[in-house]
Design brief:
By secondary structure, this protein is mainly alpha-helical. It has eight helices and two strands; from the N terminus they run αααααββααα. Strand 1 and strand 2 form a beta hairpin.
Length: 161
């Protein structure tokens, strides 16, 4: 399960740095059918816990967020703000942080449409799915893992035909 999350969330980090912001990424995936976007899911787990799983973070965004005290929902702020411990609210400061980190890294950001964001996120887990298949994991078990780990929609194939 963690391999699926790490591949998925790592790709999300790259997309944030190069192409989008947390709420656009989450909304694109939720419109496609995911039960929860990756940024909000990481906020719920705790960004410090997510960062601890990466020996070499894929982007400077998450380490900076944690260093600045953005721990996720438990701390009241992460990719989103959680006023009064309630639901996720867009936080424009995180977009500024992402844009600043992209600028520091010399990255020229290019927006992607929702279908491209979803395609890249889905493609990110394909190597893990292939490894599971080669190990003899049944397709229905892989489907359950995708649902549990990533809030993947039960009624959609991983790749649109």
């Amino acid at each position: 399960m963690t391999d699926l999350q790490d591949a998925f969330w790592g790709t999300g980090e790259k997309l944030l740095l190069h192409h989008t912001n947390p709420w656009e990424l989450d909304e694109a995936l939720c419109r496609w059918g995911y039960g929860l976007g990756p940024c909000e899911a990481q906020d719920l787990l705790g960004l410090d816990k997510v960062l601890a799983r990466y020996p070499c973070p894929v982007s400077p965004v998450l380490p900076r967020m944690v260093a600045e005290g953005r721990m996720g929902k438990s701390g009241g702020v992460g990719y989103y703000r959680y006023p009064g411990g309630g639901g996720a609210v867009v936080d424009p400061l995180i977009e500024d942080l992402i844009l600043e980190e992209a600028w520091f890294a010399g990255i020229r950001r290019v927006e992607l449409i929702d279908t491209a964001l979803v395609a890249q996120m889905n493609a990110a887990v394909m190597p893990v799915v292939r490894r599971l298949t080669l190990r003899g994991t049944r397709q229905e078990d892989i489907g359950r893992l995708l649902q549990d780990a990533l809030h993947f929609p039960a009624d959609r194939p991983l790749v649109d035909e």
